[in-house]
Prior knowledge:
12 helices
Amino acid sequence: MSLSLNAILAQAMLGLTNGAFYAILSLGLAVIFGLLNIINFAHGAMYMLGAMVALIGYSYLGTWIGFPELQAGFWWALALAPLVVGIFGMVIERTMLKRLYQLDHLYGLLLTFGIALVLQGFFLNYFSTGGTPYPATPDVLKGAVNLGFMHFPTYRLFAIIASLAVCFATWYVIERTKIGALLRAGTENPNLVQAFGVNVPLMVTLTYGFGVALAAFAGVVAAPIYSISPLMGADLIIIVFAVVVIGGMGSIMGAIVTGLSLGMIEGLTKVIYAPAANTVIFLLMVLVLLIRPAGLFGKER
């Protein structure tokens, strides 16, 4: 019984690692949809782009600029990759997405789906679909921590803590600060907010940039755990959309809680009945849609 309990707890912790990535990715989707009403299908590609920026900064940047010894390590990547991808996202919002705000959600979904395909196609020309290991895991995060029931990799524990810190900091800013209040008011009544001197278009652009920067942050944190591949975002985005639907479209807390919970449920399912692990999230999505179409934390219209 003790061995069985240890196996369950160990699998729950491994599931929590996946859940941390589900949470931060679905949070970015929820921020963009909740504040901009855009279904951002390019979110998985932005996650991949964050990991690619980290890999390129470490392995190729120095060679490109003529200083082979120059490498952007993990901490630099963690700071700069979300900034780079966020700026890229703001360019997309200013040049393309802003034309679609008054149209049906389907147009935004199709545009962002096209952007995702373009980004994937570009990197498929240079990187293998089999994945490239990220070689720059910090020494301080190597090894394992004894949790009593298992030796848990230090880096995975860092990934969970860092993801949770970013998730709850984002929730606090949006739900508990003046900036968050302005963001919510700007989406509900932009003309009124603009009348008070707030630059609503700039606020919208920064919001989209922040949303995709969250995806890039997740990509950098995931890089030492999973192989970096041009298709790594495509493999994950469907699950993340399921998480957002279950939690409630646009719900910030719903994205965080549901992402963490579903990651653990997925991990525990591997112990109880492994063949169902890949489908349990989608089964739960169907059940939630039948019982509560707005999602567990969403508001009924």
